[in-house]
Amino acid sequence: MSTRGWLTLGLAAAAAISGWSIWQHRPPKSALVAVDSRSDYVLQDFEVVVLDNLGHESFTLQAPRLARSPGDRTMTLATPTFLIPAAATAGAVPTREAGWIVTSQTGWVSAAGDELRLAGTVLAKTAGTRAQPIEMATEQLNVFPHANRATSPTTVTVTQPGSILRGQGMEALLDSKRVRLTSNVKVHYAPQAR
Q1: In terms of Cα–Cα distance, which of 87, 82, 93 is closest to 117?
Q2: Percent share of the chain, pLDDT over 90
Q3: Which residues is 180 bridged to in the sheet?
Q4: Using an 8 Å Cβ cutoff, are 122 and 141 in contact?
């Protein structure tokens, strides 16, 4: 065989070995995972009481529909109503009469039940008969029931007897009924009739 033949044969062998090596070291084909977009369960027209670590009521949820995601175990809700009791004081049991009633168009509950994300027309008002009722209206509200805290990055209107506050962003301590608006705050005083 001529030098040219040997050279061609050598190059063909090197190409075959290179091709085989590349084939063996290619990244593995990503396995096609079937994504199940179905919920692992759905509740309709229900009421559920969620307890904290001490066995006290953290919040009660009523809604026409709840769907639980099987992957991250979060829940999505349609037109939910949350009843959030006031925090326990000195070993007392939390009570609904001094808590909050919160409604929205949609809702999301974390897997641990420690965060509620409410969207749409969100309305939070103090429950029971109080001398100083408070009502908060916004388009987005994040509630942390274990910490008795709520936040909103959007415009919030807080109405109570004698005044209407409106501002961008909010932090509220639900047990003490303290609300702080973070920016662009406007106050309208409306004297009460005597």
Answers
A1: 82
A2: 30
A3: 171
A4: yes
CB 145 within 8 A of CB 131: no
Tokens for 49, please give them.
Answer: 């009481």
Q: pLDDT by residue (tens digit) across 106-164?
A: 999 898 888 989 999 999 998 865 567 889 999 999 998 888 889 999 999 999 888 89
CA distance 94 to 114: 16
Q: Please give the model's pTM, rounded to 2 decimal places.
A: 0.69
Residue ranges covered by each domain of the chain: 41-147
Q: Which amino acid is at 130?
A: R
Which H, E and C letters describe 112-151, residue by residue?
Answer: CCCCEEEEEEEEEEECCCCCCCCEEEEEEEEEEHHHCEEE
Round to whole Å and give the CA distance between 105 and 80: 7
Could you give the angle at the alpha carbon of 99 between the alpha carbons of 97 and 101, nearest 5°? Answer: 100
In terms of CATH architecture, what is 41-147? Sandwich (2.60)
- Find the mean pLDDT for residues 72-93: 75
Give strand pairing partners of 86: 95
Measured CA to CA, the distance from residue 5 to residue 9 in angstroms comes to 6
